[in-house]
TrEMBL record:
Cofactor: pyridoxal 5'-phosphate
PANTHER family named among the record's database cross-references: ASPARTATE AMINOTRANSFERASE (PTHR46383)
Protein's UniProt name: Aminotransferase
Molecular function per GO: pyridoxal phosphate binding; transaminase activity
SUPFAM superfamilies listed in its UniProt record: PLP-dependent transferases (SSF53383)
Amino acid sequence: MTARVQESFHVSANVAKMQASSTMMAMQKAVEMRAAGIDVVDLGPGEPDFDTPEHIKQAAIEALRAGETKYTPTAGTRRLLTSIIGYYERNFGTRFDLSEVMATAGGKQAIFNAIVALVDPGDEVLIPKPYWVTFPEIVVFAGAKPVFIETEETGFTLTAEQVKRAITPRTRLLIINSPSNPSGRVIPPDEFRRIMEVATEHGIYTISDECYLQFVYPPAKVWSAATLPRELRDRLCIAGSFSKTYAMTGWRIGYAIAPREWTSAMLKVQQHSTSNPTSIAQRAAAEAFDGPQDCVAAMLAEYSRRREWLIGALREIPGFRVLEPEGAFYAFPDVRGCLRGEVKTSAAFVQRLIEEAHTVVTDGAGFGAEGYIRISYATSLERLQEGVRRIRKLAEKLAAA
Ligand SMILES: Cc1ncc(COP(=O)(O)O)c(C=O)c1O
């Protein structure tokens, strides 16, 4: 029976073109090593090491007790949607209409819905490098073509000029992620505005992935594309998430804010795939936005402490070059200065690090930046220090070879 199924099964053309997630692979490797009893330092995950704040958990418990365990409207409960609207109005001074907002199962589903609802085969989608691994894969799944924009010359910060140069008559969509995973770089608001002017001039749609919105370090400031004037937001979808800001990765809750025609199309995708995000998670998310924000400030202060230590320590490693990450919780050093002998690529460096030093980081090649590695500091300072000690040992060994 199984043999016959295997013979007749062949994966669809669109899915066959997709790559497995390199960040998930790093996570899996750490799990396997830990199961084998190895003392692994895992600097792979893009996941806060904090627990979800207590008042948010309590809201979910209350929702359960109150029997909020049924389907909700596809777009999400009115309670959550008004919380999202209120949050943007309070923080960014823009009032969105209910028809422009929808709740999703994580920021990832917001991005999935937005892409699938917009692009056709043959369309080109601009994705600046380095990119979050999921962007090009969804584009490929939707049958469109990712077109990558090199940004190394501008320190991994996208400019309007670079966007202009990449536009062709087939360009349909631009995906921006600031603060960026993996580089931590932040596009200055003035430049962001110029990018949106170029996109608007050419009738190109934009997704602004703002999943790390609240995690920025001075002098960078919290900023959302929601603050742009209306005429620059006519073709803009904001993808947001509760995962990072409130340490809620497992709850699977996020949102999209877009012009109503776009959200209506996204709702169709959601209606026929996941229906609605979990009712209980929606109540928790509403509390996250409406409730006290000191939990966010506390997490940011801790990330900030780790970041400061980490950047200084990485800059002392021979062969490493480190750009200042202005946001998120990653460092993205250029390790090409360490590549020699059999260790010719960042993938080989990462592999060596796992095998010899039992330390997991993520290969930059998966983010479109060969020669770089991503180090997550969403882990305790003690583990971070141990991990960096191990990384340094390997780098010194390679430098001496
Ligand atoms: C840049 C970026 N966007 C979106 C997401 C999606 O997060 P979630 O689906 O958990 O909201 C992530 C998660 O790692 C991310 O790094």
